[in-house]
Amino acid sequence: MRTAVVIGTGLIGTSAALVLASRGVTVHLVDRDSTRARTAAALGAGTDRAPEGPVDLALVAVPPAHVAATLAEAMRGGIARGYLDVASVKGGPRRELEALGLDLGAYLGTHPMAGKERSGPLAASADLFEGRPWVLTPTRDTDTEVLNLALELVALCRAVPVVMDADAHDRAVALVSHTPQLISSMVAARLADADETAVRLCGQGIRDVTRIAGSDPAMWVDILSANPGPVADVLAGIAADLDETVGALRSLQSADEDKRRAGAEGVEDILRRGNAGRVRVPGKHGTAPAAYEVVAVLISDRPGELARIFADAGRAGVNVEDVRIEHATGQQAGRVQLMVEPSAAPLLTEALRERGWSIRQ
């Protein structure tokens, strides 16, 4: 791959363009908003000048509702040898292209499983895709050359290729991406009119659940409009669980001991099912999640404190597998939770205490 056109210079398109440009590919940036294309070019993602002839790859990074029309225009114009899109929905755009009578041998639908709460070229980064799954949905009609271009792109972005059927992909992302966005937004919506005293009690749990609720609503309307059926199916199952859980909680209020026992069993059932599902979420490096020990350390909100604690952990010969920060309400301090292998926890605890850190249980 020596030349490429990236159509759509938002977060994903600009991030991919940054990678390609850094690897010596001549990248031409196209966006209906010329300001975004110029911004991406200024970031080093390529040039906003049109190519003089056909390029090796056209990467379409526009909202799902516009993918088919954008691809059709590009394919009819013969601007590239191969055409990829990175929309989060795959089945619908492919069927639209088929309905338009286009030759799909030169097209391959893809979806990098990466993103941020922020959008636009200024949110882009060349390391956005590193270690992340990148779904490819080839068909029997896909040209080998186009598949190879897609694999080259994924390799340059240091992502992990995953081959799936397009409709299976759409059902999967409905479960692991689209529904969580809606659930997060629904929980966060409860806070909008909540009493200020209640909001001040927010801790790490509510921050974790509502983190993605800060995403762009217009972007998500586009995504959900392209995959409404599978998302509705998942939500219907969650709604059934909610109804059962509400009933179980009401039973816990009963004066009847048998009803209270049944209510407790109902609540325990959903919690245990949650445990069973949670352990299936891939952990570090895509492996099964490990059972780490948490070493909690009180830390002040001063420059260099995090660097110092990581350096002290390194001097102790302990690898920090994961980290979380819990901020103290109304104080310039917080608690850093260092996740380490269980066998390393006593060593790290002792080493940090010796270096003056305050360990919290």
TrEMBL record:
<dbReference type="GO" id="GO:0070403">
    <property type="term" value="F:NAD+ binding"/>
</dbReference>
<feature type="domain" description="ACT">
    <location>
        <begin position="294"/>
        <end position="361"/>
    </location>
</feature>
<feature type="domain" description="Prephenate/arogenate dehydrogenase">
    <location>
        <begin position="1"/>
        <end position="289"/>
    </location>
</feature>
<dbReference type="InterPro" id="IPR003099">
    <property type="entry name" value="Prephen_DH"/>
</dbReference>
<dbReference type="InterPro" id="IPR046826">
    <property type="entry name" value="PDH_N"/>
</dbReference>
<keyword id="KW-0028">Amino-acid biosynthesis</keyword>
<keyword id="KW-0057">Aromatic amino acid biosynthesis</keyword>
<dbReference type="Pfam" id="PF20463">
    <property type="entry name" value="PDH_C"/>
</dbReference>
<comment type="pathway">
    <text>Amino-acid biosynthesis; L-tyrosine biosynthesis; (4-hydroxyphenyl)pyruvate from prephenate (NAD(+) route): step 1/1.</text>
</comment>
<dbReference type="GO" id="GO:0004665">
    <property type="term" value="F:prephenate dehydrogenase (NADP+) activity"/>
</dbReference>
<keyword id="KW-0560">Oxidoreductase</keyword>
<keyword id="KW-0827">Tyrosine biosynthesis</keyword>
<dbReference type="GO" id="GO:0006571">
    <property type="term" value="P:tyrosine biosynthetic process"/>
</dbReference>
<protein>
    <recommendedName>
        <fullName>Prephenate dehydrogenase</fullName>
        <ecNumber>1.3.1.12</ecNumber>
    </recommendedName>
</protein>
<dbReference type="Pfam" id="PF02153">
    <property type="entry name" value="PDH_N"/>
</dbReference>
<comment type="similarity">
    <text>Belongs to the prephenate/arogenate dehydrogenase family.</text>
</comment>
<dbReference type="InterPro" id="IPR050812">
    <property type="entry name" value="Preph/Arog_dehydrog"/>
</dbReference>
<dbReference type="InterPro" id="IPR046825">
    <property type="entry name" value="PDH_C"/>
</dbReference>
<keyword id="KW-0520">NAD</keyword>
<dbReference type="GO" id="GO:0008977">
    <property type="term" value="F:prephenate dehydrogenase (NAD+) activity"/>
</dbReference>
<dbReference type="InterPro" id="IPR045865">
    <property type="entry name" value="ACT-like_dom_sf"/>
</dbReference>
<dbReference type="InterPro" id="IPR036291">
    <property type="entry name" value="NAD(P)-bd_dom_sf"/>
</dbReference>
<dbReference type="InterPro" id="IPR008927">
    <property type="entry name" value="6-PGluconate_DH-like_C_sf"/>
</dbReference>
<dbReference type="InterPro" id="IPR002912">
    <property type="entry name" value="ACT_dom"/>
</dbReference>
